[in-house]
Design a protein that fits this description.
Mean pLDDT: 87
Number of strands: 37
CATH superfamily: TonB-dependent receptor, beta-barrel domain
Shape: globular
Helix content: under 10%
CATH topology: Maltoporin, Chain A
Distance between the termini: 63 Å
Low-confidence stretches: 1-6, 11-28, 63-70
CATH class: Mainly Beta
Number of helices: 3
Largest sheet: 22 strands, antiparallel, barrel
CATH architecture: Beta Barrel
């Protein structure tokens, strides 16, 4: 048997054998339910406040299969249900509602650890089902006002308002949010020549003045006892202008020579989404479901750079870079679920989608001739595939079979057939067809009511990024303004195996979780060399086989055994490795993002109900040194930030909740490194070493929340 198939299959075989070996326990139901009374002493405002009190909730929301969501289309998986139903949305999906649903609207919260045809979605790990109160009439308003103080002295306000409730057969949620995304980044970089002599220094300040506006609505109506219809609407808008000031000091001469650069980067961005779904339940328990989603996202960014030889002196424009993008989806999905016999159910359905991206890129540079007003008064640069339209038409018929093998064992098997056509109009016209079969097996065994074994084996086909098809701006390298597109990209294919053990401690004492994963790839996407005799350049392309594997450990434990029954300690660690088997760009074996060395997280929360007070901290760190990006002429060692956040929260005056947060308290600096080569990286001749560090500084936020 081929190695890439044998490894994940062996995981499934071992899991099934282990399940039988442990089959002496008797508890069957592994779901966990938390009634609203469980949270009463904490005076929660929203559903999120309730979830934060559940031991191991982070484990539930972070241990699903890595392929449970897709970039395009909707798919059959979700992690959060409301009244047992998924929302017909992508950007406007259930997890985004958790801060908008008032806690006093909740009947109970259920953690679903099994798979079943009775569920509205496939359970790729564990599900959170938020069940609301049933009432002829109920209504609640949740509000928040906040302000954030940044390291440079700026103070940015924000707030939200949500109205939720029920009137007869109508359930509704309306909300609006204003949130600041202000950011001030300070950076300093120094570089050395190949002989390690000083080359230059670059110091810059980058200001992003961004405010996000969001309007959201979810409405459902019970037409009859067996018919339900729901709609959701989302509109987001932000105008994220950026201003950058850079001082470059040349150290190659006898005396340092500074130059000054200023960049204006005005931008606009908006997106909207409209979705709806209908469900009919038949007398025998069978169900018909249909839903649709229509969405669109528009972005428009202009980058202009001005240089001067003296601070505050006359400026000369030397770069004009304009990029525009319109991305839209039209999705329809329907299915019929039937009970075959006792303990078996089958769902048959089809998903169809049209996805379109229009993009345009214009670059102008300073030259002696050819000035063009449409390029900011600079000379146009000819860019291949700069104006592009990409359209995908995709059909996915699917079948999902659930089989309760025994009271404590279940097997969910699914098969998805993908038929898609991608058509691109840019410098030329290209049309390509793709067909894939994507089977999946999910085996679960409740060793006891607390201990569960899960094994997943699936063939996954990645979603291509349409941005990789066309010429695009380069956000990672100031020395390279744009990157080439690739009209011949094909999806990555992978065989994925996962084995998970999940244990919930007795007496609601917490949860422990361990998962091993191993993925084998074909057609893995990386950098490929498309250089000409005069120009070194690369693009994203399919380079062959690769693998990644690792273990994820999670624990969330109440500290009652040390006299702190209301304290919760949560910790997680991911240790992983990845490798390209045969990368033509780099002969040495290396990994690929996002599967770097891994990360770790520790959080502590202590509730003091008698004082209506809680406080805590969260520290997020990453194992450094494993995330390296290779290009045709440079090697970039990414450095990922660490973060320490502290908070204290109290119910006080007028029954409102007051919260203070201190973010990035370590004032962590992110310090990547880059080596630039003289010619192709394969030659191994370094010409420059760059070392830089940047920080966004500490932030302090104050929030006031309440229900009315």
């Amino acid at each position: 048997m081929h190695r890439k198939i044998a490894r994940p299959l062996s995981l499934l075989y071992i899991s099934i054998l282990s399940a039988h070996a442990f089959a002496q326990s008797s508890e069957e139901n592994s779901n966990v339910t938390y009634p609203s009374a469980y949270f009463a002493e904490y005076a929660p405002i929203t559903v999120n406040d309730m979830l934060n009190r559940i031991p191991g909730i982070n484990l539930v929301l972070t241990t699903s299969s890595s392929s449970s969501s897709s970039d395009r289309g909707l798919g059959s998986s979700a992690q959060i249900l409301i009244d047992g139903k998924r929302l017909a949305g992508k950007a406007n999906e259930a997890s985004s509602q958790l801060d908008r649903i008032a806690a006093n609207e909740v009947n109970y919260i259920e953690i679903i650890r099994g798979s079943s045809s009775d569920l509205d979605v496939q359970n790729s790990g564990q599900l959170v089902n938020i069940v609301l109160l049933e009432s002829l009439s109920r209504s609640s308003i949740s509000t928040e006002v906040n302000a954030t103080h940044f390291a440079d002295g700026s103070v940015e306000p924000g707030g939200s308002l949500a109205w939720s409730g029920q009137s007869g057969k109508l359930t509704y949620l309306l909300s609006g949010t204003i949130a600041s995304a202000y950011e001030h980044t300070e950076s300093f970089e120094h570089s050395l020549n190949a002989d390690f002599s000083p080359n230059d220094t670059v110091a810059y300040d980058r200001y992003k003045e961004q405010t996000n506006y969001s309007l959201n609505s979810n409405v459902s109506y019970a037409l009859t006892d067996n018919d339900r219809i729901a709609f959701n609407v989302l509109y987001n808008e932000s105008n994220p202008p950026v201003e950058l000031f850079r001082v470059v000091t040349d150290l190659n001469g006898a005396t340092p020579v500074p130059s000054y650069e200023r960049e204006d980067i005005p931008a606009t961005s908006d997106n909207w989404e409209f979705g709806g779904d209908y469900e009919h339940s038949f007398a025998g328990g069978n169900r018909f479901k249909a839903l649709f989603i229509v969405n669109e996202k528009n972005t428009d960014t202009l980058r202009e750079r001005f240089v001067s030889t003296s601070l505050g002196g006359a400026e000369t424009k030397n770069l004009f870079l304009s990029s525009q993008s319109r991305y839209s989806e039209r999705i329809a999905r329907s299915s019929y679920t039937m009970n075959l016999r006792e303990g078996q159910g089958l769902e048959l359905g089809i998903e169809a989608a049209q996805t379109t991206q229009d993009s345009a890129l214009k670059q102008g540079v300073l030259r002696a001739t050819g000035a063009n007003p449409a390029y900011g008064g600079l000379s146009p640069v000819a860019l291949p595939n700069a104006d592009s339209t990409v359209e995908e038409i995709r059909y996915e018929p699917f079948a999902i079979h659930n089989w309760q093998l025994s009271p404590r064992m279940s097997l969910e098997s699914s098969l998805v057939a993908e038929f898609s056509e991608i058509e691109q109009n840019a410098d030329g016209h290209i049309k390509r067809d793709f067909q894939y079969l994507k089977p999946k097996l999910d085996f679960r065994f409740n060793i006891s009511g607390s201990l569960q074994l899960r094994t997943t084996l699936e063939r996954n086909v990645s979603q291509l990024s349409f941005a990789d098809f066309s010429r695009a701006t380069n956000e990672r390298d100031d020395d390279q303004d744009t990157v080439a597109g690739n009209t011949q990209l094909e999806p990555e294919e992978s065989l994925r195996g996962e084995v998970t053990l999940d244990y919930r401690l007795p007496n609601d004492g917490g949860a422990l979780n361990a998962k091993y994963f191993h993925y084998e790839y074909d057609n893995k996407i990386g950098k490929v060399d498309i250089s000409t005799p005069t120009v070194l350049q690369s693009t994203n392309g399919n380079i062959g086989s690769a693998a990644t594997y690792g273990i994820i450990l999670n624990g969330s434990v109440k500290l009652g055994f040390v006299g702190l029954p209301q304290a919760l300690l949560t910790a997680s660690a991911t240790i992983q490795e990845s490798e390209f088997h045969n990368d033509p760009l780099i002969t040495t074996e290396h990994g690929f993002p996002p599967y770097d060395r891994g990360n770790y997280r520790v959080s502590y929360r202590h509730d003091l109900p008698e004082y209506q007070l809680n406080y805590g901290l969260t520290y997020v760190g990453r194992w450094q040194g494993g995330r390296i990006l290779y290009d045709v002429d440079n090697r970039y060692n990414l450095a990922l930030p660490h973060d320490l956040t502290l908070y204290v929260e109290k119910v006080g005056f007028a029954g409102l909740t007051y919260r203070f947060e201190a973010i990035n308290m370590t004032d962590h600096e992110t310090c990547p490194k880059r080596v630039r080569y003289d010619g192709n990286i394969l030659n191994g001749i370094a010409k420059e070493y760059e070392y830089g560090c940047s920080t966004t500084g500490r932030r302090f936020a104050f929030k006031v929340r309440g229900n009315f």
